[in-house]
Design goal:
The structure is a single chain. The protein is mainly alpha-helical and 103 residues long. The protein has one domain (2-94). Helix content is 45%, strand content 10%. The chain has helices spanning 27-36, 43-57, 64-68, 75-81, 86-94; strands spanning 2-6, 9-13. A two-stranded antiparallel sheet has the order 1-2. Helix 1 (27-36) runs antiparallel to helix 5 (86-94) and helix 2 crosses helix 5. The two termini are 19 Å apart.
Length: 103
């Protein structure tokens, strides 16, 4: 674990850059992480990000298939929002731990 300043806030991150503590997250941090990944967040992104945060808080395992059944986006839509790593990047931006289903 290391400390990184994101959007002017010091946060604890893993070796791969995932926030270690979900409570340190805010929308400005999400926007800066997304910008580093080449993604401009839209309201649809935030709708999905909030869904991921709720499912993680509820201790539910996340997979691309389960997110595709969320009613927010289908699998194709998830890839359109986060083209280079749908679950990996959406999780990083959402400030949640890396899902076990991601390599």
């Amino acid at each position: 674990m290391s400390v990184k300043t994101i959007a002017g806030v010091e946060v604890n991150v893993s070796e791969e850059g995932y926030l270690e503590n979900m409570s340190q997250w805010n929308e400005e941090i999400a926007k800066e992480i997304a910008s580093e990944l080449g993604i401009e967040l839209t309201p649809k992104h935030f709708e999905l990000i909030n869904y991921l945060r709720k499912k993680t808080a509820d201790k539910e395992a996340l997979t691309i298939r389960s997110v595709g059944k969320s009613g927010i986006v289908d699998v194709k839509g998830l890839y359109e929002l986060f083209p280079k790593g749908p679950l990996k990047f959406s999780s990083k931006i959402a400030g949640i731990p890396k899902p076990t289903s991601c390599i």
